[in-house]
Records
---
Amino acid sequence: MFKKVLIIEDDAMLRSSIVQTLELEDLEPIPTNGFTQARRSIRHNFRGVILSDIKMPDHDGFDVLRFAQTKDEELPVILLTGHSDVPTAKRAIKEGAYDYLEKPCAPDTMIEALHRALKQRTLIMENREVRDELEQTNSDQTEGTLSERLEMHERRIIEEALSDADGKVAIAAEALGIPRNTLYDRMGKFNIVAKAFRKPTGN
Amino acid sequence: MFKKVLIIEDDAMLRSSIVQTLELEDLEPIPTNGFTQARRSIRHNFRGVILSDIKMPDHDGFDVLRFAQTKDEELPVILLTGHSDVPTAKRAIKEGAYDYLEKPCAPDTMIEALHRALKQRTLIMENREVRDELEQTNSDQTEGTLSERLEMHERRIIEEALSDADGKVAIAAEALGIPRNTLYDRMGKFNIVAKAFRKPTGN
DNA sequence: AAAATTTGTCCGAAATTTCGGGAATTTTTA
DNA sequence: TAAAAATTCCCGAAATTTCGGACAAATTTT
């Protein structure tokens, strides 16, 4: 599970207090004093969540939220808000903020919210990874001649076997259940050289 | 996104109030009056989350939580708790509850928490689906003779082509770039009959 | 109902693949 | 360094695959 929490808070005291709270919970706070400083950390595939004050000198929490959404639509942003700003925070949620915390808030409450956000972020990133993987393995071949597709597959099988056998043709041939000579025949057809598959680790 | 919310609440008034709140938000409440009644709805792959009172005549929220976890480790459970029971709720969170709400709670707050839980549940289920799919397509063949693996693949290609061609061998053959007769040869080898691929829609 | 098209099967020649044997060369092992 | 093993290539016979032609049966179109 992810642990990074990008903290955007101009009040130095509060900021370090939050950092301490998170560190006690084995999270990884990344403290910043405002939007400008935080900006470069906010990027697609950020492996964590954002915890931002809503009211700051230069920019407000909405700036953070909007910027985060341009970088990654599914990057959870939790806003810290004073009691009088709760309606603002609710509006922020409608615009995609993940949650808000009313200042001052109990450490427990903050940790609970962060855990939920981090869990969601982890799930989102896992989802993306698995989907990418699926797309790759699925992009096998959907067009082309039967023989072209079969040759593509045969090449892959042979290369995989050679790779597993550390480039040793004899071993690969046995694994594939064919005589060495036959494998050489096939390799010749596909312009595969065994050397390319030797020494998978180091050199 | 999922919308089901299994409500476990013995107080009929509060229960119907919650139902109304959820319906206004286009969610799908499933009201029950206690653990016994809810039990049969709690199952693996439930497409929603659980919202349960923590203090009830027959069983308490922990019973619900534990039972849910035996059915599905990743089924979010939100607990409704009186003010005096907040410490209990925090303990429940450590045991895997997703969140808790202090009674009486503002409809907005409840909806926000439910949305987060439903979003997480949706992500979890998507994750499972994609992983299953990946496992299937990945279980191609990692062992066996070269010819065995190639034949398996050839069979799949042919069946896919026939399926696309509505079981018409001539069309499938053209798509595969081979003469019709050759495809018949191959089909004979694999015991594939074209009829099996006809009429994919209706009859 | 007749005509036209498609299906499914068989045949046989040409092309390709398989595979054992052999042998020169390189790499690894002892 | 000597021996053992593996690589890479060539050959040729046996087996398999490809593919066009032909044709009866089944289906669809007209």
---
Amino acid sequence: MTETAPRPTLEAVAERAGVSRATVSRVVNGAHGVRDALAERVRRAVEELGYVPNQAARSLVTRRHDAVAVVAAEPETRIFADPYFAQQLRGISKELTAHDNQLVLLLTEGREDHARVGRYLAGGHVDGALVFSLHLDDPLPGLVRSAGVPTVFGGRPGWDDGRDDVVYVDSDNRGGARDAVRHLAGLGRTRIAHITGPLDQTSAVDRLAGFRDVRTEAGSGLIAPGDFTPGGGERAMRELLDRCPDLDGVFAANDLTAAGALRVLRERGRRVPEDVAVVGFDDMLPVAEQTDPPLTTVRQDIEEMGRLMARLLLRGLDRGAGAGNAAATGPDTPSGVVLPTTLVRRATT
Amino acid sequence: MTETAPRPTLEAVAERAGVSRATVSRVVNGAHGVRDALAERVRRAVEELGYVPNQAARSLVTRRHDAVAVVAAEPETRIFADPYFAQQLRGISKELTAHDNQLVLLLTEGREDHARVGRYLAGGHVDGALVFSLHLDDPLPGLVRSAGVPTVFGGRPGWDDGRDDVVYVDSDNRGGARDAVRHLAGLGRTRIAHITGPLDQTSAVDRLAGFRDVRTEAGSGLIAPGDFTPGGGERAMRELLDRCPDLDGVFAANDLTAAGALRVLRERGRRVPEDVAVVGFDDMLPVAEQTDPPLTTVRQDIEEMGRLMARLLLRGLDRGAGAGNAAATGPDTPSGVVLPTTLVRRATT
DNA sequence: CGGGGCGCCGAGAGCGCTCTCTCCCGCTCT
DNA sequence: AGAGCGGGAGAGAGCGCTCTCGGCGCCCCG
């Protein structure tokens, strides 16, 4: 039980160093216009006293918090069924840490939570927000908007209606999907089917669009609805097999779906990849590497997405003080950044 | 671009309601000793002005932050290779939210990060900390200790040397392991092997201990070292099969390991569960349900662990103001809480 | 009918910091 | 040698809130 020593204040440091509070403040922060000798004395005093600035007092006057909120809707199964979100968090955390910002995590579920988040954001407790909004009708974006906090979105918001002040980072779902389907086509497959994700999510919509892009080039495509779960993949695969017993390629909207499809294919006696080639999406390691055979899939650099989101936000914050509101927008801040994907070939193609 | 309206202050609300700052403050907080009529007037003014208290100003005087840090070592592969951590976070978040506390996430990797975390914690920016420390030689616990912040640990700390002021929440790794092995024994299996986790983690140590508890009762046990990865599981399984070709039961330290073992068993022509029965640990859904056949495993309620950690910490905080330091300890605060596990039987046994 | 108590409310003093404003000192320029 | 200038340091005013304290009115009891 160490004594609850009252933490030393600026005042204490000043006294010990024999200078004024103002001087200590100058040294502790940027330290400009303080003679080396004095600065050194101050630094020593800080060291000896173990002084740490009181962030609350500082925020009170500067109106900055050096803190950023990360807002995510918790019921999103994908957020908790795979390491996706954790990786994104890691990227965000790294970038924020590098700029001495704190990460305040806000997980929501349900209406009342939205109100809470809105209040928190509007309360000016953080300098900006990173918001994950995957659904087309997500109330979060609007809420954040009206809270007037600089924001960067993770994933293309559903209502990206050409407004120029929405900043987001997404991976190239459409391009990745095209690559996947072209890969199948390049293997000589001609009857290629797609199992979609839930179409109220932009990522699923974009992957479907990518599939269509190529299928339109190369003939009609077979499509069955899925929901990003293995169960959904199984159902869709059965349906597809019934409709077109001789299909020879499947592009699944994500790896979980592909895993389900794979099971049905085996159950129905199809050999993979000989009879049917399969491509997934995400390269969600614990799944993609564990399927039998290991899954060919489209990888996105999730951690980099997180890092980029944070970087964009912080950049907007630096300048943004003027505009202050709505978004980390600016002449040279791109409104949407789309990260490339890469095809990872394993054994299902 | 909404105008950056200066947020209304207590003063503004007071003026509008025709009362003093003190009265508004009373209403905004607990509201005791204010007549209903006045309180109502104040509430209306708050509403109309959209007043939100300035947390910085409040913290400055109360020395409370209503914020808790969650500290986790990021290189922990398990944290980012599975949804484990995310689920724990969810539990924590729910509990904190219910008590109007914020969650500040601190991810560390490497030495310099430790220093940073130490400084942050010592800086008194948060009221307490939830620390995940899985390794025996983790520097984090000591660091947190010396920062003098009330703390609850996730997972039994390696140095739980009987000190009574370390509060932690863990799941019953040892008991769960015993259940798993007894289950195998109950199925008539007599040559049961164990693939361990990395033995610098208490969870792996405890699971091994559980295995030994039962094997000591029922005869000697075959043990091979693993590392919580599928690759490690494969290696260990091969070794075990070489040493004891007629083994008929395997208890793997976690599901990933079991998945690897399963693959080797199939490759070596063993039927599961007919020839060899397999039990995992964790019930990590995307893995346990996707193995072939689906894995019998030991489930822990991870979200509940998180929630409990938060609850314990908050409870300690309420009272703890006096002691202030070291830990959320108190006469009726248990030092270690161990959550029960349950065996989930699927198709590998 | 008077005094004491109690419940409500306002005044005011800070919490620890930043930042502007002013002062002072040393130097150059005329 | 005196005036002017500029850079370095200190004084002091808050930032928005909480909380103690004192005053005032009301009720109750003697």
